[in-house]
Amino acid sequence: MNPMDYVKKEPYKLYIGGEYVPSVSGKIQDCVSPADNEVFAQAYKGGVEDAAKAVKAAREAFDKGEWGRMAARDRSAILLKAGQIMERRAEEFAILESLECGYHYGSARYYCVPMAVDSFNFFAGKARTLEGSVVPSDHGTLNYVTWNPVGVVAEILPWNGPYLMGCQKINAILAAGNTCVIKPPSWGVLALLQLAGVYEEAGLPAGVFNVVTGSGSEVGAYLTKHPDVDMVAMTGGIETGREVIENSAERVKDIALELGGKSPNIFFEDVDVASAAKWAVWGFTNHSGQVCVSGTRVLVHRSIYEEFIEEMKKFAEEKYTAGDIFDMNTNLDPLISRSHAEHVWSYIEKGKEEGARLICGGERYTDPVLMKGNFVPVTIFADVTRDMTIFQEEIFGPVGCVTPFDTEEEALELANGTYI
Predict the structure, then answer these.
(1) Mean pLDDT for the chain?
(2) How many CB atoms lie within 10 A of CB 419?
(3) Closest CA to 183 of 175, 192, 174, 194
(4) Alpha helix segments (H runs only) across 260-327
(5) In Å, how far from its chain's centre is CA 58?
(6) DSSP character for 5?
(7) Catalytic residue among 201, 258, 354, 393
(8) Helices 72-88 and 113-127 meet at what angle, rounded to 10?
(9) Where does 58-114 show beta strands of DSSP type E?
(10) Among residues 189, 210, 11, which one has the least CA distance to residue 100?
């Protein structure tokens, strides 16, 4: 398999109003592989003018088109067909997500793609189960409850899983009869641009699905403020979430925000230590910790604390191998960009400075091949206290923070003891 056989040589275009189009500005952005920081493809970079065209197309498709008025079984049939097309193109989408977002090919091909296909099937079913209700009220009157499409939805997607999360969220939007404008992350545009062809082949009417690349500060902000956008959905950081709320406030838009966190996993003294320690490590290393629900705070009962740490160290050092993301013998993904990797390294250094006990990792790779990419070894800190930065702030890398507790009450206090 040559991954580059699945990559276009010409720049990938935006998708607006049922057509593939270059950006109005003609600007091109490089698509860089996190595994080696080499440019492997290019795509047009959208701007406000492109977003305006996309919103207009989505508005017209909703107000004048058939999608929102279509029988549920017909919307369902189109989504089912799109899922079949996605399954047929599984290799292409897995490779694009691996190359651009650093997913190990095995994860992309055998987890992300099947889950994405399932989202088409699931929401095709949901399209046929949107029912209302009749509620008896006072004086013999009846209240009718009906579920109707919101209208034009702007979906702003994150870089840590744009393909899978994109399919899940977009299919939900479409199943309900809405039209949409999709803003991919700046890192991770290709799979979403290619998704347009899946819907197009399945028979989705023009204008229902639109994709505009570009920066969040420009394109994203424009979409959240646009008067013809009825709802904004965003997955990303807390600061961006605050901006979406602020930008949407004037028109009181419907919003759906999926933001970051600092998730705890709690282990009491009755666990199978070896097994629990393994899953604790997996909890903050899936996609190298670039997951919103990563269990980055590991809270362990003091009676098993040192044994648990030793098992975590053993598993981390024996089971994780960084390297070629298309090699089935590797299993540690690179981080999305050089700048994000440096951000994670700054947290590792902060952990050392603030007195956390380094158990494993915490030092940069010296292998020349790994140094070309954005690889960070699995890093475990012990004796992490709640006043430490690494306990409080989301790192978004393969860094676990272990803290002891004595009682259930203390464990709960620690679990809820962050400010995010």
Answers:
(1) 96
(2) 6
(3) 192
(4) 273-285, 305-319
(5) 23
(6) G
(7) 258
(8) 170
(9) none
(10) 189
pLDDT, tens digit (0-9, with 9 covering 90-100), for 225-280: 999 999 999 999 888 999 999 999 888 999 999 998 899 999 999 999 999 999 99
Burial group, residue 276, by CB count within 10 angstroms (0-12, 13-18, 19+)? buried
| Torsion sign (Cα): 38, 44, 49, 51 | negative
Helix axes 190-202, 90-101, angle to 10 degrees: 160
**In a 3-state reduction of DSSP, which class is residue 333?**
coil
pLDDT tens-digit series, residues 133-156:
999 998 889 999 999 999 999 999
Query: In angstroms, what is the C-alpha Rg of the chain?
Result: 23
**Dihedral sign from CA coordinates of 270, 274, 277, 278:** negative
The tokens describing 28, both together, are: 């091109």
Which residue among 112, 292, 360, 401 is the active-site one? 292
Query: Which tokens in the block code for residue 229?
Result: 């956008």
- Assigned token pair, 291: 């997951």
- Whether 292 sits among the annotated catalytic residues: the reply is yes
pTM of the model: 0.95
Q: Which residue has the tokens 């838009």?
A: 253
Burial class of 319 by CB neighbour count within 10 A (0 to 12, 13 to 18, 19+): middle
Convert 90-128 to b/e letters by CB count within 10 Å (16 or more is b).
bbbbbbbbbbbbbbbbbbbbeebbebbbebbbbbbebbe
